Amino acid sequence: MSLRTSGRSAGKRPVRRHFLYKTGLCEGTTIQTQQGDLPVEYLSAGDRVMTRQGMRTVRHITSRILKDCPIQVRRDALGPNRPAQDMYLAPDQGVHLQDWRALRYFGSDQPSVPVSRLHDGERILWGEHPGDLTVYELEFSEEQIIYAEGMEVMSAPAPATPVSSA
Questions:
Q1: CA–CA dist 160, 13 (Å, integer)
Q2: d(CA 135, CA 116)
Q3: Which long-range contacts (CB under 8 A, 24 or more apart) does 41-48 make?
Q4: Maximum Cα–Cα distance for the chain, whole Å?
Q5: Cα–Cα–Cα angle for 57, 62, 63, nearest 5°?
Q6: DSSP SS3 for 10
Q7: Which of 58, 64, 120, 135 is most deeply packed, by most CB within 10 A?
Q8: By CB neighbour count within 10 A (0-12 exposed, 13-18 middle, 19+ buried), where does 109 fall?
């Protein structure tokens, strides 16, 4: 009998790569997928995720332990069911806005801003999470807006493709 767990990822953790920023979706965050809402830690490369542009295939998932204090976004902080429940995000995780905050504070009707810039001390605040949190970044062939707990957030930027010289 194998000591490895069975299931969606056969007991394998996502490959750990260097994160350039303090971004990511904290474990337990549900993502809209082709199979329904799944916690981000259950996703694997090849899964289909709902994006603003329709279903897209996850190319790569990176994970790391969040050493910084997470941002807690309380239920309904950005509108009805946005998010659907309290959630934690890494401080620089991009959140896509399309409400009054977008134009008033950021001068655009649909900006993507780090969640820490939305801190109001009441509905979006520096969280105190017990223990270490693992954060995950989903990578697609190009950067996408995905749905996490019903809230629009940015995926990881697509990797730069090497330019060949001819």
A1: 24
A2: 16
A3: 41/134, 41/136, 42/8, 42/9, 43/8, 43/136, 43/138, 44/8, 44/9, 44/14
A4: 60
A5: 135
A6: coil
A7: 135
A8: exposed
pLDDT tens digits along 38-74: 999 999 999 999 999 999 999 999 999 988 889 999 9
Tokens 């709902």 belong to residue = 50
Six token digits for residue 136: 């995950």
Q: Which two tokens stand for residue 38?
A: 């799944």
Reference 31, options 129, 138, 140, 132; nearest CA is 138
The answer on pLDDT for 19 being more than 60 is: no
- CA 4 to chain CA centroid, Å, is 27
Is the Cα torsion angle 88, 94, 96, 101 positive or negative in sign? positive
d(CA 140, CA 145): 10
